[in-house]
Specification:
alpha/beta, 7-stranded mixed beta sheet, 22 strands, 24% helix, binds S-adenosyl-L-homocysteine
Length: 488
């Protein structure tokens, strides 16, 4: 088919018919497919073409001509510039529908499963009751705006320009007060911000982590030097803050630290953490719950709570209320009777491991970050869980290196890039009866499931959990069972 040839900066009127992988709207102008940032499915928009390829192009919304019934007024005035949220202008119910379809589509397209196979096992997505203020962790870049004024906020999409915004509606509201205090300490004590292009200046990022159940808060400044000047002034300012006044929960900063990062890199945290005041970690607790029926209210059973110690460098799920639902599903999908040996690969601070340990004979957790493994061991000890052991190393290497007991169930929860090939091979060779796969990227998940199914596994259950409202990301949990190669 011949398309009318379009050029960069052309303005076209388009009806948005679909949603792309990154939450963008998809529509056609005279047969030419356009991926349009900030357009919502159902909109008619005037869009400016930003890039042309032979069969498709990219564009941005200039004007919404007829708004979609799924379009809502976004909470955040910076939602279009900021790289954090992609679909804030879409009604939350529609966001959930989009994520369910995205997971289903990836499993079919990339995993090579049939639509019938997927529809037979996929349960409805688990959404949030309130999709705001859900994040317990934020890393704010610090720098200068065009006028040379000190700012903190978020990177604009695909750039390292900082949008000065200390009031992100996805995070806890007290983060604003904390950030403003850090900025005023910097101004008063002439502490510079990092200038990325030159590699000069001092403060690069501010990490704020909060325990939503405990009320404990950690503030960590990532600095391009060994020491923070006038550190006692920062401590004085932060410890004076009265956070969460008038709220039911008491919130308090319990840990102030610096992380030394002198590399020219996009990696935010440095490896060395130095405590300026208080503890090196915060604590938080999570519970699991009975989630037998699809539409049942998710109520945490208090007796099943586990307390976790979280260090600045350790991974901890960013949306604790949804994490409780995710872990509840993980425990349920593992179908534990008390006789099983469970491997929890990519275990972080041992969160999934410890919930599994309560219902299994034995759990072995494997994780690459040694500080996280220290946290995991301490977490087991403090919660009186004696049947969980933890190993530092790459999942793919530790598995073959060590004499871990043969698993009946393997749980994997890898980062976005998915499991290493060697890890998948070992899993297949170990032939556990069940594999529970927790994934934050349904594309790499689908790729890995294909390999596991070729190795004799069959998908029995699948469910998406929305951990990241207003973004295009979605978490998925899968249960697979060994069925033998001939049955696939
Ligand atoms: N299951 C945990 C952590 C999941 S995040 C939880 O729910 O909290 C993924 C974890 O995998 C991170 O802690 C990361 O440090 C770890 N990781 C990344 N690559 C790894 C590898 N090759 N082997 C083992 N762990 C790895």
């Amino acid at each position: 088919m011949e398309y009318k040839s379009f050029q960069k900066n052309d303005i076209v009127t388009v009806r948005i018919e679909d949603i792309g992988n990154d939450g963008e709207g998809i529509g056609r102008a005279e047969g030419y497919t356009l991926f349009i940032k900030d357009a919502v499915i159902g909109d008619i928009v005037e869009a400016r073409i930003t890039k042309c390829r032979k069969n498709y192009g990219y564009a941005r919304v200039e004007k919404v001509v007829t708004p979609s019934p799924f379009r809502v007024e976004p909470e955040c005035p910076f939602h279009r510039q900021c790289g954090g949220c992609q679909i804030q202008a879409m009604h939350y119910g529609k966001q959930l529908e989009y994520k369910q379809d995205k997971v289903r589509g990836n499993l079919i397209r990339i995993g090579g499963f049939s639509a019938e196979q997927i529809d037979a096992v996929m349960e409805p997505i688990v959404g949030m009751e309130v999709p705001w203020h859900y994040r317990n962790k934020a890393q704010y870049p610090v720098g200068y705006d065009k006028n040379g004024d000190l700012v903190a906020g978020f990177y604009a999409g695909r750039t390292h320009d900082i949008i000065a915004n200390t009031k992100c509606p996805l995070g806890p509201s007290e983060n604003q007060e904390i950030l403003e205090a850090v900025l005023s300490y910097m101004r008063e004590n002439h502490v510079s911000a990092y200038r990325e292009t030159q590699g000069s200046g001092l403060v690069r990022h501010v990490l704020i982590r909060s325990g939503f159940t405990s009320g404990e808060i950690m503030v960590c400044l990532v600095i391009n030097a060994k020491k923070l000047p006038a550190a006692e002034k920062l401590v004085e300012k932060l410890t004076k803050l009265r956070l969460g006044e008038g709220e039911t929960q008491s919130k308090r900063i319990v840990s102030i630290s610096v992380s030394v990062n002198r590399e020219k890199t996009n990696v935010i945290m440095g490896k060395e953490i130095r405590v300026l005041w208080g503890n090196e970690y915060i604590e938080d607790s999570l519970g699991v719950m009975d989630c037998g029926e699809t539409n049942k209210a998710w109520v945490v059973s208090e007796s099943e709570r586990i307390t976790f110690r979280i260090s600045p460098l350790s991974f901890y799920q960013v949306n604790p209320r949804q994490t409780e639902k995710l872990y509840s599903l993980a425990v349920q999908y593992a179908e534990l009777t008390g006789r099983e040996t469970v491997w929890d690969l990519y275990c972080g601070i041992g969160t999934i491991s410890l919930f599994m340990a309560r219902k299994a004979k034995k759990v072995c957790g494997v994780e690459i970050i040694s500080q996280a493994i220290e946290d995991a061991k301490e977490n087991a000890r403090r919660n009186g869980i004696a049947n969980a052991s933890f190993y530092v190393g790459k999942a793919e290497e530790v598995l073959t290196d060590r004499q871990l007991s043969r698993p009946d169930v393997i749980v994997v929860d890898p980062p976005r890039k998915g499991c290493d090939e060697k890890c998948l091979e070992t899993m297949i060779a170990m032939q556990p009866d069940r594999i529970v796969y927790v994934s934050c990227d349904s594309a790499t998940l689908a790729r890995d499931l294909k390999v596991l199914c070729e190795g004799g596994y069959k998908i029995k259950r699948a469910r998406a959990v929305d951990q990241f409202g207003h973004t295009c990301h979605v978490e998925v949990i899968i249960m697979m069972q060994y069925c033998g190669k001939e049955k696939n």
